From TrEMBL:
<dbReference type="GO" id="GO:0009251">
    <property type="term" value="P:glucan catabolic process"/>
</dbReference>
<feature type="domain" description="Glycoside hydrolase family 3 C-terminal">
    <location>
        <begin position="421"/>
        <end position="623"/>
    </location>
</feature>
<dbReference type="InterPro" id="IPR036881">
    <property type="entry name" value="Glyco_hydro_3_C_sf"/>
</dbReference>
<protein>
    <recommendedName>
        <fullName>beta-glucosidase</fullName>
        <ecNumber>3.2.1.21</ecNumber>
    </recommendedName>
</protein>
<dbReference type="InterPro" id="IPR036962">
    <property type="entry name" value="Glyco_hydro_3_N_sf"/>
</dbReference>
<dbReference type="InterPro" id="IPR017853">
    <property type="entry name" value="GH"/>
</dbReference>
<dbReference type="Pfam" id="PF01915">
    <property type="entry name" value="Glyco_hydro_3_C"/>
</dbReference>
<dbReference type="InterPro" id="IPR002772">
    <property type="entry name" value="Glyco_hydro_3_C"/>
</dbReference>
<dbReference type="GO" id="GO:0008422">
    <property type="term" value="F:beta-glucosidase activity"/>
</dbReference>
<keyword id="KW-0732">Signal</keyword>
<feature type="signal peptide">
    <location>
        <begin position="1"/>
        <end position="36"/>
    </location>
</feature>
<comment type="similarity">
    <text>Belongs to the glycosyl hydrolase 3 family.</text>
</comment>
<feature type="domain" description="Glycoside hydrolase family 3 N-terminal">
    <location>
        <begin position="57"/>
        <end position="382"/>
    </location>
</feature>
<dbReference type="InterPro" id="IPR051915">
    <property type="entry name" value="Cellulose_Degrad_GH3"/>
</dbReference>
<keyword id="KW-0326">Glycosidase</keyword>
<dbReference type="InterPro" id="IPR001764">
    <property type="entry name" value="Glyco_hydro_3_N"/>
</dbReference>
<dbReference type="Pfam" id="PF00933">
    <property type="entry name" value="Glyco_hydro_3"/>
</dbReference>
Length: 625
């Protein structure tokens, strides 16, 4: 099964090669060119993977396999050339200056500055720079932020997902970044997992179809300078871990997937087959274990299955300091196990010297073969040549101004609308009429909170409440929707006991932002305040609608009885008008549950096919209206 390699990349000649060939002209011309072009860097001094490999020292190869979180070299950019660092990343929230946020042009300036510094190395090999644009380029202020994957899974619309990811591709390119640690093709089986919302749903075919669409959206049909390299993650069975086996303080995240190989191959492996068929450029290894052995040292599943049986020839990257969780008495021993298991790029992401020194010493001691190192570096260089980074190492500023454009936001709004799942609609309360002249009361902690509406991985790693970027809250959207009509809307916030009444009440609440293991939750209950607010609104209006903004199913048995209509909104992102589009009938409700909705948390894990359990709503449920 071929990997993402465009055959020409390995043997392709870069324009720099032509220039270097005309030595006489070059000697006269290049210095003039360099002075004239402010963004020009020292030209690469190797022009194909094999040419670079033939010239590289062991230390330079080790540097090429090293990925560093950018704040670690922010004040020492010379280290990039000195150590021949192959890759940088911005971990969640690591924007320009190491701070969260930053505009697209600030990100692009940061990227170009690092790239210029890196290309001053002896061979001038360009960096590849990674980021988690997991629901749009969500680290960047003003970027278009889409529904998280669980909402995209509810759309059952891979074409829309591809369109959305293509927009994310453009917005990522607008900041210079060339590598996206997305899509997560996790198959979350226990919704108590804090990363449930990063998956498209609980069945492999949903993760496969949406994962494939995402890879195509990010990369196009072949890798080139218009691509952003995609990453299928986290290999493998990250969503199949057992409650109570989580790493450190986590209850389930990074835990142990205790299952037969048959179940692992049936449930968790298919999305990787699909992503590889779509030529995914990289695969990220999971923190989790399979039957007690960490994936970061799993020779069988990485070398034999991923690289052997699935014939994967892209880049296999570790997760954040994932090597440090491998059994071993020293970093060098842990690292050796990971690299020998098949990992190519190491997301250190801090102590890059230790990483480089460890690789060199392990090779010199004969515990890692030169052959293995050359294979890893070949994969990395092939990716860089395929993406034409040697020819076009700097930001293409044509994309920068379009970050967060109205055109992009319209697609996100469409995705929000299609992701909404109507769980209850007694008396056909929905859709409302904007011209009904009715009095509408809106409340709940999420009704006017953009940060809650976006969830985790938004501007910061964990996300936060408030107006952390540009977007439209549900409350702002409903005001716009009813502007100029006889329909009055009143905002009651989170107060209860207030003296108000109305024809229609709309409560918007649910989860506050979280990411990864910080979101592991053993009860999935709404907060008492949420329930109180919902009851208050419903007691003071003739009919009431509940809109649950959450990264997963929650236990809503009582609240479902209280409200006349109930909508699962997931984590919609910046375009709250997608929610009002279905509430007011501009778009039909068409979303379908990507996960089984439990009637009790004790039912977890509960998934399609668990016939012995009686869920509140089955996988695929969703009313039409
Ligand atoms: C995190 C996540 C992974 C992410 C990486 C870089 O710990 O597990 O999904 O891509 O680190 O931010």
């Amino acid at each position: 099964m071929a990997g993402p390699r465009a055959a020409t990349a390995r043997s392709g000649r870069s324009p720099w090669f032509a220039a270097a060939c005309s030595a006489t002209v070059g000697a006269l011309l290049l210095p003039l060119l360099a002075a004239a072009a402010p963004t020009a860097a020292a030209a690469p001094r190797c022009d194909s993977t094999e040419d670079c490999l033939a010239q590289m020292t062991l230390e330079e190869k080790a540097g090429q396999m090293t990925q560093v979180n950018h704040p670690n070299v922010m004040d020492n950019k010379e280290a990039l050339a000195e150590y021949g660092i192959g890759s940088l990343l911005s971990g969640g929230g690591a924007g320009p200056g190491g701070e969260a946020g930053g505009t697209a042009s600030e990100w692009a300036d940061m990227y170009d500055e690092y790239q210029r510094a890196a290309m001053k190395s002896r061979l001038g090999i360009p960096l590849i720079y990674g980021v988690d644009a997991v629901h749009g380029h969500s680290n960047v202020e003003g970027a278009t932020i889409f529904p998280h994957n669980i909402g995209l899974g509810a759309t059952r619309n891979p074409w829309l997902v591809r369109k959305a990811q293509n927009i994310t591709r453009k917005e990522v390119l607008g900041t210079g970044i060339d590598w996206n640690f997305a899509p997560a093709v996790s198959v979350p089986r226990d919704d108590r997992w804090g990363r449930t919302y990063e998956g498209f749903g609980e069945v492999p075919w949903l993760a496969s179809s949406m994962g494939r669409a995402s890879v195509r959206g990010f990369q196009g049909y072949r890798l080139d300078s218009e691509s952003v390299a995609a990453t299928a993650k986290h290999y493998v069975a990250d969503g199949g871990t057992t409650w109570g086996t989580g790493e450190g303080d986590y209850q389930i995240d990074q835990g142990n997937a205790q299952m037969s190989e048959r179940e692992l191959r049936r449930i968790h492996l298919p999305p990787y087959r699909a992503a590889i068929r779509a030529d995914v450029a990289s695969v990220m290894i999971s923190f989790s274990s399979w039957n007690g052995l960490k994936m970061h040292q799993h020779e069988y599943l990485v070398n034999d299955v991923l690289k052997g049986e699935l014939d994967y020839d892209g880049v296999v990257i570790s997760d954040w300091a994932g090597v440090r969780q491998v059994e071993g008495d020293s970093y060098a021993e842990k690292l050796r196990k990971s690299i020998n298991a098949g990992l190519d790029m190491i997301m250190v992401p801090n102590d890059y010297k230790q990483n480089i020194d460890a690789i060199v010493s392990e090779v010199r001691a004969g515990r890692i073969s030169e052959k293995r190192i050359n294979d890893a570096v070949r994969r990395i260089l092939d990716l860089k040549f395929d993406m034409e980074l040697f020819e076009e190492p700097f930001t293409d500023r044509r994309y920068t101004d379009d970050v967060g454009s109205a055109k992009h936001r319209r697609v996100a709004r469409e995705a929000v609308a299609q992701s909404q799942v109507l769980l209850k609609n007694d008396g056909n309360v929905l859709p409302l009429s904007r011209k009904s002249g009715k009095d509408i009361v809106v409340g709940g902690k999420t009704a006017d909170n953009l940060g809650y509406q976006m969830g985790g991985w938004s501007i910061t790693w964990q996300g936060s409440g408030g107006d952390t970027t540009e977007g439209t809250t549900f409350w702002e959207a409903i005001q716009a929707e009813t502007e100029g009509t006889r329909t009055d809307v009143e905002f009651v916030g989170t107060e209860t006991g207030g003296d108000y009444s109305g024809d229609i009440g709309i409560w918007v609440g649910g989860e506050t932002p979280y990411a990864e293991g910080f979101g592991d939750d053993g009860d999935l209950q709404l907060s008492e305040a949420d329930t109180r607010q919902l009851n208050d609104i419903c007691s003071k209006t003739d009919v009431c609608i509940a809109m649950l903004v959450s990264g997963r199913p929650m236990i809503i048995n009582e609240e479902l009885k209280t409200a006349d209509a109930f909508v699962a909104s997931w984590l919609p992102g910046t375009e709250g008008a997608g929610m009002t589009d279905v509430v007011f009938g501009h778009e039909r409700f068409r979303g379908r549950l990507p996960v089984t909705w439990p009637s009790s948390v004790d039912q977890q894990p509960i998934n399609l096919g668990d016939h012995r359990k009686d869920p509140l709503f089955r996988y695929g449920y969703g009313l039409r209206r």
